[in-house]
Design goal:
The chain is mainly β. It is about 10% helix and about 35% strand. It folds into 3 domains: about 30 residues, no CATH class; about 130 residues, YerB-like (YerB-like fold); about 130 residues, YerB-like fold, CATH 3.50.90. Strands 6, 7, 8, 10, 11, 14, 20, 23, 24, 25 and 26 form an 11-stranded mixed sheet that branches. Strands 15, 16, 17, 18, 19 and 27 form a 6-stranded antiparallel sheet that branches. Strands 1-4-5 form a 3-stranded antiparallel sheet. It is globular, with a radius of gyration of 22 Å. InterPro entries: DUF3048_C, DUF3048_N, YerB-like_sf. Keywords: Signal. It holds the Pfam family DUF3048_C. This is DUF3048 domain-containing protein.
Length: about 325
Amino acid sequence: MKKKMLKFLAGVLISCTLAGSAVSVQAEDNLEMQVTSYLTGEDVPESVGRRRPIAVMLGNDTNGAPQSGTGNAGVIYEAPVEGGITRLMAVIEDYDNLQRIGSVRSCRDYYIFYANEFDAIYAHYGQAVYALQYLDQHVIDNLNGLTLGNAYYRTTDRVAPHNAYTDAAHLQAGIQSLGYSQQYPEGYTGHYQFAPEGTEITLDEGAPATLVKLDNFWDNHPWFEYNAETKEYSRFQFNAPHVDQLTGQQLTCDNIILQYSGYQAYDANGYLNIDTQSGGSGKYITRGKAIDITWSKDSQWGTTHYYDSNGQEIQLNRGKTWVEIVLNDSVGSVTLQ
């Protein structure tokens, strides 16, 4: 992995005597290696980019939005859950300075598979019964608020269960109490392929996609609008800009992946068994254009790969990515203009 040296110059005071005048100088150099982020392809400090990220389950109904800490996520997944609402999973590597992250909600089994694709430590507060078989087998490092009180805290500005939050100190307390490694395994190369440095993916032969409307999610009706000046997509939901509550800034991204997925209902309560393994079709959207893609996995716990019409694995533009899990029978409610 290509590394760059970033030099921070602090506390400069020069000591010398020249023509009867004395000037004091003292210099101190702070050096930290820069590495390429596995989440965004951007240069980040090694202490951030070589630490396993957290993948946090977030509420996304009117009680749970806006969320805190989402502006720092390198990747965000959105998928439907029971009751017609969606939940988000924010994959965050740079969380040390976040005052709070959340609100943290309960696990669904398919999100376990998505989190594992990034070798992330999965943060959730409880779970649907169908996820217990994976959590009980300890197949993924996870911080469960029902059994691990030191990883989360409650706030008073929202009512339960929408007021469970975490931050760097609480995350570290939980991770250390369970003895999880925060280092990527040897040989880890990341999830995505990114455009080479100094280049960009423009999808010149793609269809127009300056507006991406996801009316398949009928509760929050999210959409993305492309800004040609910033080359980013701005996110909206509930008829308003979707913001990070901590900063008030609207969420943006450089890449959108629509992953069309099959599913079955687990029970009459609406719990979904979303197929994360069998593969399917979708769209890759960036720089105001969209192309058809297919996706596949080589195993249940493997990584999802996305391919263009020529069978080549796609490259993403460096920056943030939203992955939208669209159920196969609702693809017709997605609009690209």
